[in-house]
Design brief:
This protein is of the alpha/beta class. The protein is built from 18 helices and twelve strands. It starts with a strand and ends in a 6-residue tail after the last strand.
Length: 368
């Protein structure tokens, strides 16, 4: 995340231990590469550098000098749309109308941990995967010198809500939460989990944000060619190929299909007739090769009437692939991995990368 030193800080003149401690903490996080620190103008940096000897540590002084020397190259960061916090001398509350622009006082900084942004997802591996998406976005957008710095954390599915609530209540760190959209049909609204996360970040006093991935769940982000690479059995290979073919005829299945668990035709007929999910799945099943014509004709599962498991495949079951996908990404250079993403897969993947980099951007640790 970006921390901007406000011009008002150049009015500090008593150099209280409390204020110096907060400024030192900001400088330290820049030195360690946990967050990016910039300033509104060089005036505040000149003021810090003109402070009485031994006011600031050698590390903080080195950071101020580097920020002053590179000031003319930092302007684009504040125009990038990335999330940032303006650091001011006195107490101030965040602007609730714009959750990507925060205002923090030196007192707020003192009580916060400025470790890298906590990236909270429904699963720890999901969070690690999203950090890679952020790095890919930086590469594609040619944002040289920017890195992703995050502490990945898993919320355990729907229990991400109490995890996020604990962080927001403590108000002692920067946090960005990412949840599955759980969209069961294209026009579906936000899930209950997503709505609860939105409400929590609206109440946050320390920088906290939330967004949903633009597809049902992580498995829907994985390109079919990668799903084939990850397939560990003939049935998984068949499912990945069926999914790939289905996406060609029915693109919405990429966004909303439950490829992790699969969907049998019998589920379609158990849904209420007016349910939007039923309309979506029925239209999908009518286009697949795995539906029994008797079932479609009678709007009923022929097998289940006879106590036999449903054999109609509406959405093929690819299975859980998060661990395999994470290993696949780590086993390739960013350039090579990005080659697998094309069309809508590329768009969704980079959308996640953009939100991650906005909250988790950093620069490499400074060196003498």
């Amino acid at each position: 995340m970006i921390f901007m030193l406000a011009d008002e800080l150049s009015g500090l003149d008593d150099w209280s231990l409390e204020d110096v401690a907060a400024i030192e903490k900001i400088a330290q996080c820049a030195f360690e590469g946990a967050h990016i620190v910039v300033s509104e103008s060089t005036a505040v940096l000149d003021h810090f550098l003109a402070a009485p000897p031994e006011t600031f540590s050698a590390v903080a002084t080195a950071v101020f000098k580097k920020l002053a020397a590179t000031f003319s190259f930092q302007g684009w960061l504040t125009e990038s749309g990335f999330t940032f916090a303006l650091v001011t001398p006195t107490s101030a509350k965040a602007n609730a109308a714009n959750r990507s622009r925060w205002v923090l006082s030196l007192a707020d900084i003192r009580r916060m941990s400025l470790e890298p942004t906590t990236l909270l997802a429904e699963n720890l591996v999901d969070a690690k995967i999203y950090t890679i998406a952020g790095a890919h976005y930086a590469r594609v957008m040619k944002l040289r010198g920017l890195e992703v710095s995050a502490v990945a954390r898993g919320g355990g599915g729907s229990t991400i809500v109490p995890e996020l609530e604990e962080i927001v209540t403590r108000s002692d760190r920067v946090c960005f939460a990412i949840t599955d959209s759980d969209q069961a049909w294209p026009e579906a609204g936000k899930s209950l989990v997503a709505k609860r996360c939105d409400k929590l970040v609206e109440q946050a006093s320390a920088p906290a944000g939330h967004d949903c991935i633009p597809v049902r769940e992580l498995e829907n982000l994985v390109p079919p060619s990668v799903l084939l690479d990850l397939a560990t059995s003939p049935s998984r290979v068949d499912a990945a190929r069926a999914f790939q073919a289905l996406c060609g005829h029915f693109p919405e299945v990429r966004q909303c299909g439950d490829i992790k668990e699969g969907t049998a035709g019998s589920r379609v007929f158990r849904l209420p007739e007016a349910a939007p999910e039923r309309h979506f799945l029925a239209a999908l099943m009518a286009r697949t090769q795995g539906a029994d014509s008797r079932c479609l004709r009678n709007d009923d599962c022929a097998n289940e009437r006879n106590q036999v498991p449903c054999q109609c495949v509406c959405v093929p079951k690819v299975g859980a692939v998060a661990d395999g996908f994470h290993n696949w990404l780590n086993g390739r250079s960013h350039h090579k991995a990005l080659e697998a993403f094309a069309g809508p897969w590329n768009e969704a993947w980079l959308a996640i990368g953009a939100m991650v980099l906005s909250w988790c951007c950093s620069r490499a640790m400074m060196h003498s």
